[in-house]
Design brief:
Blueprint: H1 32-44, E1 48-52, H2 56-61, E2 73-75, H3 81-94, E3 100-106, H4 107-112, H5 115-123, E4 129-134, H6 169-174, E5 180-185, H7 189-201, E6 206-211, H8 215-218, H9 225-234, E7 241-244, E8 247-250, H10 252-257, H11 267-270, H12 281-302
Helix pairs in contact: 1-7, 3-5
Length: 303
């Protein structure tokens, strides 16, 4: 595939009507990962094998014989997701099959425990898709901070607010120069769907990072989960982009923000969530300034 423009935007009307999950699963009410998984499978199709570490996704999928998924899944250890996907891809190649291999992990299993195997797989130019759903903490084990938890967030082991900044995993991955890197939001699942379609057509290592609101972990009403994710994108706090062949471009709602004279303040994102109660006004002002400067740079670069 020569450019990232080869895939036309999918609409709800044109979305594959076939379902690749069984009705019902063990996800929390309002879980946005659940939506991502259902829509993502429509892009991936049936000829696909997953490598999944301990995570909320293992809860969503469930275990045989009562799994909600209709796809083959290899449940692996936290640290070995990318290594296990490498092995599965090698086995498929040995059998002469072009089955799509997908590693799908949370932020803890990607940015923390699994980072070494992820980095090594990119260096080896392994040919599979790695998806990180980033709900910004270890939600499956009781809401503990991860390295992608934003500064100031309250978790069960940062009870006065996390001191450190959020780790920018997509930039770390992009520094390895893989075939494809993209960021997505669970609030825009069709954008994720189409980026998966692009990733399927590209040979080499593909990485997709998804901002994934978690109602119980973020202190958000179940019905507001999608609105929270949209507020992060609309305020410019979380950028949607893709990097293919070394070229970056903003995508979807983020691309439209380039022409807006003024974006909503980041406070509109914070006010939805109980986890940001410890934020100091000085930090919010500094973060708003950081967002404004970043988007000023985007406008200078892309307009």
């Amino acid at each position: 595939m020569s450019t990232t423009e080869a895939i036309k935007k999918t609409t709800v009307v044109k979305l594959d009507e076939e379902e690749y999950t069984h009705p019902g699963n063990r996800a929390c009410t309002g879980c946005t990962l659940n939506t991502l998984y259902r829509v993502g499978l429509k892009a991936l199709g049936r000829d696909c094998i997953f490598a999944v570490p301990p995570s909320c996704l293992t809860v969503v999928q469930g275990l045989y014989p009562i799994s909600s998924s209709q796809m083959p899944i290899l449940n692996v250890t936290f640290a070995s997701t990318a290594a296990a996907a490498t092995g599965v891809r090698a086995a498929m190649k040995r059998l002469g099959k072009d089955t799509q291999v997908v590693a799908w992990a949370g932020d803890g299993g990607t940015a923390d425990i699994g980072l070494q195997a992820l980095s090594a797989a990119i260096e080896r130019v392994e040919d599979f898709i790695y998806i990180c759903y980033d709900n910004e903490a270890y939600m499956n084990t009781g809401v503990q901070r991860s390295s992608t938890t934003p500064r100031g967030v309250l978790t069960n082991n940062t009870q006065h607010g996390k001191v450190e900044q959020k780790k920018d995993v997509p930039s770390i991955v992009a520094a390895h120069n893989p075939a494809y890197v993209a960021t997505c939001s669970a609030s825009y699942p069709l954008d994720f769907h189409d980026k998966l379609l692009k990733a399927k057509q590209i040979k080499g290592f593909k990485y997709i990072h998804i901002h994934t609101p978690c109602p119980p972990g973020w202190g958000v009403e179940d019905r507001m989960a999608i609105a929270v994710g949209k507020a992060a994108v609309d305020s410019g706090l979380y950028d949607l982009y893709e990097i293919a062949h070394g070229k970056m471009r903003l995508t979807g709602p983020s691309e439209k923000l380039l022409r807006k004279k003024k974006m909503p303040p980041v406070t509109e994102y914070f006010e939805y969530q109980g986890r940001f109660k410890a934020l100091e006004p000085e930090y919010i002002d500094a973060l708003q300034n950081e967002v404004d400067q970043r988007w000023a740079g985007y406008r200078e670069k892309f307009l």
